[in-house]
Each structure stands twice: as structure tokens, then as C-alpha cells.
Design a protein that fits this description.
single chain; alpha+beta; Nuclear Transport Factor 2, Chain: A; four-stranded antiparallel sheet; 12 helices; 9 strands
Length: about 400
């Protein structure tokens, strides 16, 4: 009997790698060895699901053992691919590679999604904390920033930063004509009083104009939510010397300001920024009439007279009155600081008066007061008088 013995030479595993006993190390290319040696994102994200799907059943069950699973997580991340290939349960390397690439691809997408959600949640938490801080400190800072912009001549920037209600009262040019000469070139504002009630705030103090005269100032603000932030927006500005630094309570049924004294005493504010006190329509009407009078027009004034106020006035008398008023605006350089007063309500009608300071080219000054009333949703001019001051 002849016996044949076949010797098969196998190269030694010099790198101590764990490979499939059914597939010798010499059958793997350098690229395949590199793939086996990479970390496994699938094991890190999917844990036992990954181990069961890659023939590492023992490690899959160990994932349910407390504390041991931590070790398995770490070992799996760095050696899962090598351990999986060493099981010898794969049909070929192509099957092994496809499974691991798929698991890693899904795991990386999970990581991206989790990062987006984590960063988004972090941003929301940060903004929430920031909003709480801003809610405590920003009325004063917002008011100071607003006034500094005005004294630096950046009226358009200050106007854009204000609330929509504030901007609805007039254009930036109109606002500029009102505050520009008063605050331009002044010193740093000193704001030493603050009152906050719910979403409204009032900040008061003074600012010295360019001539060194101290100008009282009151800034009304409202809290607005912008991009998840609580932002204090300027809603009004009072440069008179008759205000109180308190948030005015409003009767929610009538919309009228509550008066602690229980009477109808006058409320003095600046008309251009008195959106919460004076009727917007009445402000707009007076402004439009003045713009016409400055260019020698009186069409709107004629149309705006309260029929009840001119019921006993002849056409000649009315014409003479309008011509005289138009002549008063001849030579006016600009219409300066004005005051709105709210007279006592008369029946269903609420009247407002608008005191305008006319500054002439020769530096002379006149004061004109417009009385307005709102009836049946329409605004009228009930009287116009020149004040003696």
C-alpha cells in the first residue's frame, strides 16, 4: 500500500490578527486587512442589535449584563470588525464587508441626526436662559442704546430698532424732525428709574443737550418675542417734564388709561410717540394737515372740520380763518416739539389736542393747538387756536 503525505505550507500570522479559521490570512488583501482593522460605528450606536447581526451572539447577550456592557461597548467599537470576521460565519468577504458598511452607514446618519437635535436643543436652552437674563436687564439697556443712537444722529437706526406700533405712528423723516434737534449731540443719558409690569416697562432719567441743558426723558418699552428671545422694543418716548416713571395700567374693557385720582385730569405726552394714549388716526390727520399748510395748501383742512363745530360759522368766516392759519405757517423753518393732551371724554367721543411749536426762519416761535375728536370711526378737527406763551 502506498501512502502519500501532502504538506501544505501556510505563512505564519506575524501580526497576531484574528481571522476566520476557514479563510487563511493569506487570502486577504492589504485593503481587506485595513477594512477589518477599522473601528465599528455600528457597534457603538446599535449595541446588541449590531452584535446579533454580525454573528457576535455572545457579545450581544453580554450587552444586557450591567457594567460588563460598558466593556463590551468599548471593545466592540475598536475590535468588532476583527472579531466578527474571526467567527468564520461569513459566506465570503463581500458579504461580511457589505453588512458592516451598511451598519456603519446607518450609525453615522444616526450620529448626525442626534448631533443636530442636541445642538438645536442646546441652542433653545441657551436662548431661554439668555431670554430670562435679557428680560431682567434689557429695558434699561435698550432705552440707553436707543437714546445714544439718537444723540449720535443715527435716527434711522433707532427708528428701525423700535416696535412696529411705534413706527406705525409716522415715518423716519417725521420722527427725525421731532427728536433730531432735541437730542442730537447731547451727552450720555443718565437713566436712574425703571418700572416693569408684565410685558411693559418704563425707563426714566435725563440727558443733557448739546448746550448743556438737562432734558427729562422717559422711554416706554414692550417685551417682544423675536427668534425665541425676549427683546425689549421701544414703544414710546416722552421728552416733556410732566411724566411719572410708572407703567400706566390700562382698562382692558375700554382701553383707557386708569386714573388713580378717579378724575379726568390731563395726560401730557409727546404726540409722535403716544401710540398707547392718543389715537393713531388723530395723530396722522394733524400731521397731514400741517404738511399741507407748510406748502400753502388747505384742502385737507377744509374736509376735516367737525360739522358740529362749524355749524354756525359762515363760509366767509371759515375762509378767513383758514387763510389766517395758512399765513401763520408762512416762513416756518420746522415744526418742533409737540404735546398731546387728552381732554375729558364727552359722551361717546374722546378728544385730543395737539400743541405744535412753530419755529420760524427768523428764530421767532409760535404755538398752535389743534383740537381733534373721533366720531363714528371718523376723525375731525374741532378747533385750532394760537397759544399765548
Amino acid at each position: 500500500m502506498n501512502v502519500y503525505i501532502e504538506y501544505v505550507y501556510m505563512e505564519p500570522n506575524t501580526n497576531n490578527s484574528e481571522v476566520s479559521p476557514s479563510v487563511p490570512a493569506t487570502t486577504l488583501t492589504a485593503e481587506q486587512e485595513k477594512f477589518i482593522g477599522k473601528v465599528s460605528w455600528g457597534s457603538l450606536i446599535f449595541g446588541p442589535v449590531f452584535f446579533f447581526a454580525t454573528h457576535l451572539i455572545k457579545y450581544g447577550f453580554l450587552m444586557f449584563v450591567p457594567f460588563v456592557n460598558i466593556y463590551i461597548y468599548v471593545k466592540g467599537f475598536f475590535r468588532a470588525r476583527r472579531l466578527s470576521w474571526a467567527t468564520g460565519e461569513w459566506k465570503d468577504f463581500a458579504q461580511y464587508e457589505k453588512r458592516h458598511k451598511l451598519m456603519d452607514k446607518i450609525a453615522k446618519w444616526f450620529i448626525v441626526i442626534w448631533l443636530i437635535l442636541f445642538l438645536g436643543a442646546g441652542a433653545l436652552i441657551f436662548n431661554s436662559v439668555k431670554s430670562d437674563i435679557m428680560g431682567l436687564t434689557s429695558p434699561h439697556e435698550s432705552a440707553k442704546t436707543f437714546l445714544n443712537l439718537l444723540r449720535e444722529g443715527k435716527v434711522d437706526v433707532a427708528y428701525d430698532s423700535s416696535s412696529e406700533e411705534f413706527k406705525s405712528i409716522g415715518t423716519v423723516e417725521y420722527f427725525s424732525s421731532y427728536v433730531g434737534e432735541i437730542l442730537l449731540g447731547g451727552e450720555e443719558p443718565v437713566l436712574n428709574q425703571q418700572s416693569i409690569v408684565n410685558k411693559k416697562a418704563v425707563v426714566c432719567g435725563s440727558i443733557k443737550d448739546k448746550e448743556g441743558n438737562e432734558q427729562p426723558v422717559k422711554v416706554m418699552l414692550e417685551k417682544k418675542i423675536i427668534n425665541y428671545n425676549n427683546v425689549w422694543k421701544v414703544a414710546g418716548l416722552d421728552l416733556s417734564d410732566t411724566f411719572t416713571c410708572e407703567v400706566e395700567e390700562v382698562n382692558t374693557e375700554t382701553g383707557e388709561a386708569k386714573n388713580d385720582q378717579g378724575n379726568d385730569s390731563e395726560v401730557v405726552v409727546q404726540d409722535e410717540v403716544a401710540a398707547t394714549i392718543a389715537s393713531k388716526e388723530q395723530i396722522v390727520l394733524v400731521d397731514a394737515i400741517i404738511k399741507e399748510l407748510l406748502v400753502k395748501k388747505d384742502t385737507l383742512l377744509y374736509k376735516s372740520f367737525d360739522p358740529a363745530a362749524i355749524e354756525d360759522v359762515s363760509e366767509v368766516e371759515l375762509l378767513s380763518f383758514v387763510m389766517d392759519l395758512t399765513n401763520k405757517f408762512d416762513g416756518v423753518a420746522y415744526v418742533d416739539k409737540s404735546v398731546v393732551t387728552r381732554p375729558s371724554s364727552q359722551g361717546d367721543f374722546v378728544g385730543y389736542s395737539f400743541e405744535k411749536k412753530l419755529v420760524y426762519k427768523d428764530n421767532s416761535i409760535k404755538y398752535i393747538k389743534f383740537y381733534t375728536v373721533k366720531k363714528d370711526k371718523k376723525v375731525y378737527v374741532s378747533n385750532i387756536v394760537e397759544l399765548e406763551k
